[in-house]
Amino acid sequence: MAKKKTSLFECQHCGEQATKWLGKCPNCGSWDSFVELNQDQQEVLKQTSKVINTDTKAVPITQIKQDDVIRFSSNNDEFDLVLGGGIVPGSLTLIGGSPGVGKSTLLLKVAGSIAASGKKVLYVSGEESAGQIKLRANRLEANHDDVYLLSEIKLEEIQDELLRVNYEVVIIDSIQTIYSSNLTSAPGSVSQVREITFELMRKAKESNIAMFIIGHITKDGSIAGPRVLEHMVDTVLYFEGESSKELRMLRGFKNRFGSTSEIGIFEMTNEGLVSAKDITSKFFDKSKAQSGSALTIVMEGSRALILEVQALVTESTNPNPKRSATGFDGARLNMLLALLEKKIDLPLNHYDVFVNISGGIKIKESSADLAVVAAIISSFRDRPISKESVFIGEVSLTGEIKDVFSIDMRLKEAQAQGIQKAVIAQKPNMKLNLKCFPVDEVSKMIELF
Ligand SMILES: Nc1ncnc2c1ncn2[C@@H]1O[C@H](COP(=O)(O)OP(=O)(O)OP(=O)(O)O)[C@@H](O)[C@H]1O
Ligand SMILES: [Mg+2]
Fold first, then answer.
1. Does domain 279-446 have CATH number 3.30.230.10?
2. 20 to 30 Å CA-CA from 114: which of 31, 40, 195, 392?
3. Where does the motif RadA KNRFG motif lie (predicted)?
């Protein structure tokens, strides 16, 4: 009797599999996203899920020789910093970012600088013609004999090219445009993206090629394709920034070879993306004191950045006043507003409150609480705060102001940028050329205005 064929269905958003069709994906919650995989697709899936290492015997850890991670520089300081100190041969890095943020520009620029050190780089584009890329390369000064362009969308052709020439670095722009003729599904679909990434990973590990893959992102900001993609690769980076502004941030999300705490900061200029020089002064404008604006200092990896917190407090006609935060945690903003109502009797329940962090940076630590409080009071009272002052401190639920980590580094940066006054939780031990005003309670903030 012939063996009964098993049906397999797969969610086209997250890659979840089921043996029967489901209307709603139990993993990602999308509706009508399950499609049936044919026998060929199921076969490919089986192959891709096989573990590469066929050594089945376990070995005591003490007898295993450690892999030494030898990196090489991309000759781009910011890029190296985010990767944890340089490029690791044989590694696979996924770079996501919204349309037009500058992913192709960044990687072409990096391709040029790597080639300048005598390494062969292949730039595969499934989105643009070689002529278009050449035009960009001219603008970026990335023209180099060792940068090879391939305008191709078929995986098998790319694999042939990789067999023909020994490249040390390969860039794929973008994973969603490449397809394999082994699979019948459309380019960009979950099974295509997974299969192609798996094949590229196999090639990268086998031939010790450092591979960079550009990925489109979805509306919610994650890389389009199955979640498993992020698990498969060694490093995941996100390229962020507002396309209306010149500053762009490259942020590590996962890194098997280094920390993810550093961010790379670039500036989009006519010559393409250049490492932003004198970064600290880019995120705030010292020119004029305005009400609703307060400066703070946050740590981004090993760097201290001065940021401007802006708040707008306006009378509301709505029974449920609006609260909106960009670059700052919305729940934390609500907590601070409740605290201001309770501790200093600001009638904020009748006011709309908007908070924004300038420069497109998302604050992930609580040291900016005090600056948010200062900006809100300043906007409410319509009293400008001098741009010579910074506010650094975490505000607790009881209204206490707490010290934050690396306060010395933050204050040194403030001093270097010509700041005269720092409002902080405790006086630091070090000697500084700026005046420190210790404030231990949020209720005492009102005395500063
Ligand atoms: N001549 C130019 N001078 C300055 N900046 C430019 C110039 N041409 C393009 N840009 C900038 O480059 C950005 C596009 O960059 P790029 O094509 O690298 O983005 P991308 O992230 O690869 O986009 P996509 O997702 O569409 O592929 C534009 O938004 C613009 O800011
Ligand atoms: Mg592009």
1. yes
2. 195
3. 254-258
